[in-house]
Amino acid sequence: QVQPVESGGGLVQAGGSLRLSCSASGSIFSLYNMGWYRQAPGKQRELVAVITAGGDTNYADSVKGRFAISRDNAQNTVYLQMNSLEPEDTAVYSCNAYSKLLKLDSWGQGTQVTVSS
Q1: b/e map 62-86, b = 16+ CB within 10 Å
Q2: Which pairs with CB-CB distance under 8 Å and at least 24 residues apart come from 27-32?
Q3: Are 5 and 25 in contact (CB under 8 A)?
Q4: For 26-64, how does the pLDDT look when each residue is reduced to its tens digit (9 = 90+)?
Q5: Model confidence over 58-109: pLDDT tens digits?
Q6: DSSP tag of 42
Q7: Which residues, 6+ apart, have CB-to-CB distance to 27 below 8 Å?
Q8: For 43, which DSSP code?
Q9: Taking Cα atoms as reference points, which of 2, 36, 4, 43 lies closest to residue 19?
Q10: Which residues lie below 8 Å from residue 14, measured CB to CB, with a gap of 6+?
């Protein structure tokens, strides 16, 4: 079984930075596609960033140029570096491991990010 576990959330002032981490068990972590999603109160869950098993990345328009997703396969970990944070970034951020080939679709519990104005 794969159980992603997020960490690194917290309270930060607008304009500040935060780095989220997501670790997932498994000897074939390098084959997982990994994504970060977020959900704010009263809003739908939205895609923030993804990184494929091959290392390709994609970002939501709202975070392009501010956020960066990366992975360290040796540590079974994916990161989300968040810079120039805005109050609108406040949400619960969740990590997802996905693979059609492996029939994998697993979510972490989420970590709270709060950006003060």
Answers
A1: ebeeebbbebeeeebbbbbebeebe
A2: 28/102, 29/73, 29/76, 30/73, 31/99, 31/101, 31/102, 32/2, 32/97, 32/98, 32/99, 32/102, 32/104
A3: no
A4: 779 999 999 999 999 999 999 999 999 999 999 999 999
A5: 999 999 999 999 999 999 999 999 999 999 999 999 999 999 999 999 999 9
A6: T
A7: none
A8: S
A9: 36
A10: 85, 86, 87, 115, 116, 117
Q: How confident is the model at residue 18 (pLDDT cuts 50, 70, 90)?
A: very high
The DSSP bridge partners found for residue 51 are: 34, 57
Task: Of 35, 57, 55, give the one whose Cα is nearest residue 106.
Answer: 35
For residue 25, what pLDDT band results from cuts at 50, 70 and 90? confident
Q: Which two tokens stand for residue 4?
A: 């992603």
Q: What is the rounded CA–CA span in Å between residue 24 and residue 75?
A: 9
* pLDDT for the residue numbered 2: 86
